[in-house]
Structure formats: C-alpha cells, structure tokens
Amino acid sequence: MSQPLETMYLDDVNSALVILDQQLLPTEVKYVPLTTLEQVYHAIHTLQVRGAPAIGVSAAMGLYIHMKDYAQKNAPTSSAFMAEMERAGAYLASSRPTAVNLQWALNELTHAIEINKNRPFLDLVEILRQTAERIMADDMENNRLIGKHGAALLKPGMGILTHCNAGALATAGYGTALAPIYYADENGMDVRVYVDETRPILQGARLTAFELNAAGIDTTLICDNMAATVMAKGWVDAVFVGCDRVAANGDTANKIGTHGVAVLAKHFGIPFYVCAPFSTIDKATATGADILIEQRDPKEVTHMWYTSRVAPDGINVFNPAFDVTPAALIEAFITEKGILKPPFDTKH
Ligand code: MRU
C-alpha cells in the first residue's frame, strides 16, 4: 500500500512539525505547521493529530522543536537544558492521558539526553532530532511487521470488523489494526472490511473509511449499533482493533465502544485481536482498572456532528474517550515481535 497522505513530517528548516489536520478529514486535506510547544499540545488535545502512535511521534517531534528553539535563544547549561525538557515534556504528556505511547516517546528522548548530558547543548539538540526521527522510522517498520504477522491469520475473502481508526492516519504510516489488511491486499489477498462509524468523534466514518477507500479496499461503513447484525449474518471472520494502553494482565484500553465489540465477538465466536507496537504494552500498569480514562467535552456528544444541537440543554453527558476490554475477551495481541498473549514475558 502506498501511503495516501503523510500523517506528519518534520520541516527542520522552518523548525516545524507539519501535521495533517484530521479534524478536517475527509472533506478537506490541509497540512498545518506547528512551531511552538503550545501548538503541539493543542493539536494533540483537539485530535488534529490522534491515534496512540501518531501522538507519540508528534510529541517527540514537538519536544525536539521546542528544545531547539529554547537552546538557540538561551545557550543553556546541561542542567538547565534537562530542567526545561522535563517541564516541557510533562506539559505535552498532559495533553492526553490514556495513550501510553505519548509518555513512552517522551521518555525515549529523556533517556537519550540523560546518557549524553555532559555534551554541549547543540549536540543535545541534534540527539533529540535523531531520536525523534528514529521513533518515527521505527513506528513505520513495526507497523509493517504487525501487518505481516496479522495477515498470516487471514484467508482470501474474509470479513474483518474494525473500530475507530488504527490505520495509517493513527501512526507514522501503515497503521496497526489496518496493517494486516494492507499487507494482505499487497499480497493479492482480497478481504472485506466493516468499519464502525465510532461515535462520538466518527474516526471510523471520517478516517478509516477514507483511508481504506483510498487504498481500494472493499470497505463497508456501519453505525456502531449495527455490529451485531453484520456478525449475526456471518459476514465477520475476525475483529482487528488498535489500542492506547495494554495493562500487564492484558486488559486493553481503546476507543470507547471497543469493549462492546469484544463482547459481541465473544458471543458470536469471532476472534478479537488487538494490534499494537510493543511500546503500547505498559508493564507498569497492573490491570485495566489502573488505566486513566480521558473524559472529553460533552459537546462532542450533544453538538459536534449536527447542524444544530440535538440533546436538551442541561442534560448530563458521560463522554469517556476510551474503554477497557478485559483480557479474557482478547484472542491475542499482534505486535511487531509476533502474536502474543499475556503475561508479556520480560524477554520481549
Ligand atoms: O481518540 P483517538 O482517535 O486518538 O483514539 C484512537 C484509538 O482509540 C486507536 O484505536 C488507538 O489509539 C490505536 S491507533 C494505532
């Protein structure tokens, strides 16, 4: 699959992280340069760039751009450099709390600086650039491996159901849950994909349908409440979803609605697979109960996709961005290291 649109890229000459504004897709394709820490925070928080691996890459690039600017203006000592990195990293990490990839990517930058802390600040800036670029390149490479491992589970003509967008747009490229579909397609295997629209932000309808269509894959968009119907008809052979954080016991946080799809899949005897880079597995979080679930603006439910408000004024709204699927409902995890089941061995 050739990447239809880049999710983001570094414009180092202009000290900008350039992102594809996913709020505007699929009706408008617009790239937005982000040159300040506040702009990167805002883009992640408002889902202009979203999807766990994509926000990890964006945060890494954003921190690099900020530290380059800070170093040029302040010629800092190494301890001042580290202190500013810590402050700026904590700020970026607070933009979205559930996806562990965000904190993971920032930790990679911190570690790279810690082991080089006695070098001059210009070297430190260069180390940040190289580390951020490496995180981005690794994401692409890992996703291809996820695609290869996942495609081994597929047969020609199979129907796959997916929820939210864990495709190229949610990553540096190629996707996680959509990677096996792209890999199968590249190897001449036709599969059919059912895409949940994914209320309330409609990542399925706006983003997954858009990128699968652009790739020429047989795609059918369904409302979230239609998943049981397509499963009951025997049209779905497997469910592939992405994830934002996997606890040590295998409980998995992903887009709100994923848990319901997993319950349905269990009911219909359909295998439910979670696709993710290994960095999404958070061994420091024991179970799903320990995962912080982001609560979002009620307007996403009451107003956002309507020409006028549909819900009564003053109505209570519960709008969690993610839910946790218990490990017992998950057949396996498809990662770049292969197909795994918890507990995740320390050798991984
Ligand atoms: O709120 P979003 O759009 O960032 O949610 C995205 C998801 O839930 C994805 O499935 C997950 O981040 C994995 S992306 C490869």
Q: How would you sum up this structure in a few lines?
A:
The protein is an alpha/beta fold and 348 residues long. It has 10 helices and 14 strands.
Strand and helix layout:
Layout: E1 8-11, E2 16-20, E3 31-34, H1 37-45, H2 52-74, H3 78-93, H4 100-114, H5 121-151, E4 159-162, H6 179-186, E5 192-196, H7 203-214, E6 218-222, H8 227-232, E7 238-241, E8 245-247, E9 252-255, H9 258-268, E10 272-275, E11 281-282, H10 299-302, E12 322-325, E13 332-335, E14 338-340
Parallel strand pairs: 4-5, 4-7, 5-6, 7-10, 8-11, 10-13
Antiparallel strand pairs: 1-2, 2-3, 8-9, 9-12, 13-14
This protein binds 5-S-methyl-1-O-phosphono-5-thio-D-ribulose.
5-S-methyl-1-O-phosphono-5-thio-D-ribulose (MRU) binds next to helix 2 and strand 9.
